[in-house]
From TrEMBL:
Keywords: Glycoprotein, Integrin, Membrane, Transmembrane, Transmembrane helix. It comes from the Eukaryota. Its main location: membrane. It comes from Anguilla anguilla (European freshwater eel). This is Integrin alpha third immunoglobulin-like domain-containing protein. GO terms for cellular component: external side of plasma membrane; integrin complex. Residues 13-187 form the Integrin alpha third immunoglobulin-like domain. It is found in: Membrane.
């Protein structure tokens, strides 16, 4: 006799508002000045009731390799059950003190070259925030909405060396209670939401790097040209011409004089 198994399919969809932002286009104000709302919807499409359903959400928090906090969770709301946040920290004034990168980092990452940064979470990543919402039992067709309100400190991005475009990826995975008699029918395990940011203008540090680099490059090029011209005798040309003109002048040999 075959054991009875129940098929469950929990689908997850998500979006973020606003989905894009621009940083560095206005005077830098230290602190968490940008607000975003991540929304995830979990639906049980059947064919059976989902017992002990839950959804797990991860959100990148730090701008690796720096330890400064980029995103912080304000609050989490769910239409079913309750939620718990992992790796959450109360923000104090210490988090507003930004440490400037070393000057060589600006030289390694040129400010005139835009680079792409893709931020995402690994399993048990200490640089991320994790939210677990226990939704309870969900009948077929029942849905649950999870709202995650976050705040961002754009100073972390503005002080990052070089000009960057950042993509912040947040993933949500819904699953029923683990049981030998429950068959998970999900085709796509995770719903990914992307928050994209672009640099509006270069920071003061980037402009200073461009100025210093330009002066150094120009001076080095000029010195190289001077050395090359000196090697080929460019600066001795007048002396050579004067010597040649002296050789071409008629010499007074003293002939034709009688004593």
């Amino acid at each position: 006799m075959l054991p009875l198994r129940y098929g469950v399919n929990l689908t997850t969809h998500g979006f973020v508002t606003p989905s894009t932002f621009i940083f560095g286009h206005k005077p830098s104000s230290v602190g968490f000045t940008e607000k975003f709302n991540f929304t995830f919807k979990v639906v049980n499409v059947g064919p059976s009731k989902a017992l002990g359903a839950k959804v797990e959400v991860d959100i990148p928090r730090h701008m690796v390799p720096y330890q400064h906090i980029l995103l912080n969770i304000l609050h989490v709301k769910t239409s079913l059950g309750s939620c718990d946040i992992k790796n959450s920290t109360n923000i104090t004034d210490d988090y507003y003190q930004m440490t400037k990168p070393f000057i060589f980092e600006y030289l390694v990452f040129p400010p005139f070259e835009q680079r792409q940064r893709h931020m995402y979470c690994m399993k048990n990543d200490q640089m991320c925030l994790y939210i677990t919402c226990m939704l309870g039992d969900m009948d077929v067709g029942k849905e649950a909405n999870v709202l995650v309100a976050v705040e961002m400190n754009p100073t972390v991005l503005q002080d990052y060396p070089g000009k960057i475009a950042v993509t912040i990826e947040s993933a949500a995975i819904a699953s029923p209670m683990k049981d030998l008699h429950v068959l998970d029918l999900q085709e796509e395990k995770a719903a990914c939401v992307f928050l994209r940011g672009h640099s509006g203008q270069m920071s003061v540090h980037d402009r200073a790097v461009i100025l210093v680099t330009s002066l150094f490059t120009g001076g080095a090029t000029l010195a190289f040209l001077v050395i090359c011209l000196k090697k080929v005798g460019f600066f001795n040309r007048k002396i050579i011409l004067m010597q040649a003109s002296l050789l071409d002048e008629p010499q007074d040999t003293g002939e034709g004089y009688e004593f």
